[in-house]
């Protein structure tokens, strides 16, 4: 009986060590699989893809081609502005979470990579804009920012109106019917 009592703490310790080693192995394999497939901070850049496809199909030499390409480039710039806004809004809180150890460094690295990619994208859009109109490279993001701001305000107004209409409908449904 005394040998069983003496072995019990050893068996307990071996069990805990096994759980610890198994947990470490699981975390390592999980982190390797996450690094094997890097995820982008942003969804695919569909406006960039659309612009690239149009630039392969149309020439800026024609009136129709120029109009299509400049419109697609403006949409691409607007998308970039929205991405810049997202980074601007999410970077400070994310930095705080990383400093506190709540969020891993991989998410921070993802954000900084996205920021670098966005800077390169902005330079690319500016260069493309210069090809269509001289001086437009400096102004395209200002125009895109204004249009995106107006769209954002319109969407917020529509959401507020919809919420108000839903609130009114709810209040109307809650009132007792007059007989």
TrEMBL record:
GO biological process, one term: post-translational protein targeting to membrane, translocation
Gene Ontology annotations for the cellular component aspect, listed alphabetically: Sec62/Sec63 complex
One Pfam family this sequence matches: Sec66
Hydrolase as UniProt keyword: no
Keyword Cell membrane (UniProt): no
Spans traversing the lipid bilayer: 6-26
Signal peptide: none
Alphabetical list of PANTHER family matching this protein: TRANSLOCATION PROTEIN SEC66
Protein name: Translocation protein S66
């Amino acid at each position: 009986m005394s040998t069983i009592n003496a072995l019990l703490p050893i068996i307990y310790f071996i069990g805990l060590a096994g759980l610890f080693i198994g947990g470490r192995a699981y975390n390592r394999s999980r982190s390797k699989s996450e690094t094997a497939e890097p995820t982008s901070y942003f969804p695919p850049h569909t406006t960039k893809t659309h612009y690239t496809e149009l630039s392969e199909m149309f020439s800026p030499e024609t009136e129709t081609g120029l109009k299509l390409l400049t419109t697609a480039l403006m949409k691409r710039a607007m998308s970039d502005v929205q991405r810049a806004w997202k980074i601007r809004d999410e970077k400070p809180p994310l930095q705080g979470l990383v400093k506190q150890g709540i969020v891993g460094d991989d998410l921070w690295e993802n954000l900084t990579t996205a920021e670098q990619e966005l800077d390169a994208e902005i330079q690319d859009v500016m260069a493309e804009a210069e090809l269509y109109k001289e001086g437009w490279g400096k102004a395209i993001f200002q125009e895109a920012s204004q249009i995106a701001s107006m769209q954002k305000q319109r969407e917020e107004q529509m959401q507020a109106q919809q919420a108000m209409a839903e609130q009114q409908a709810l209040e109307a449904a809650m009132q007792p019917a007059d007989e």
